[in-house]
Specification:
elongated
C-alpha cells in the first residue's frame, strides 16, 4: 500500500543527496559564489528533505505541499539539479494519483462483480 510513498521518498532523498554530494567540495556553488560550502549545510538540507518526506508518509503533510517544500529545500541546496528532482517528484505525485484512482476503480468493480455473483441464484 505504501509503494508509491516509498518511491516518492527515494526520489526526494536521491536528488537531495545528489545535489549535496555534487556540491560538497565547492563545485558549482564555489564557481558561482567563490566560496567553499560546508558539509553541514548539505547535511541540514538532506535532513530537512527526509523529514518532510517522513511527515508526508505519516500523513501530517499533504503530498502537494511535500513536493513544494522538497523543491524549495533542494533549490536552496542544489539549484538546477534540485529543480530536476522536484519536477520528477511532481511527476511521480501526479502518476501516483492516477494509479490510486485506477486501483479504486478496479477494486470497486471487483466488489460489485463478487457481490452480484454471490447474490445470483444457482
Amino acid at each position: 500500500m505504501y509503494a508509491g510513498e516509498m518511491i516518492f521518498i527515494l526520489i526526494a532523498t536521491t536528488f537531495a543527496a545528489g545535489a549535496g554530494a555534487g556540491l560538497i567540495g565547492g563545485g558549482l556553488h564555489a564557481q558561482i559564489f567563490g566560496e567553499h560550502t560546508s558539509a553541514w549545510f548539505w547535511l541540514v538540507i538532506f535532513i530537512l528533505v527526509c523529514g518532510v518526506c517522513w511527515l508526508n508518509l505519516k500523513g501530517k503533510i499533504p503530498t502537494g505541499r511535500t513536493v513544494l517544500l522538497c523543491m524549495v529545500f533542494m533549490t536552496i541546496g542544489g539549484g538546477l539539479t534540485a529543480l530536476g528532482g522536484g519536477l520528477m517528484q511532481w511527476g511521480w505525485a501526479v502518476f501516483h494519483i492516477l494509479v490510486i484512482t485506477l486501483q479504486a476503480f478496479i477494486f470497486m468493480v471487483l466488489t460489485v462483480v463478487y457481490l452480484s455473483m454471490a447474490h445470483e441464484e444457482h
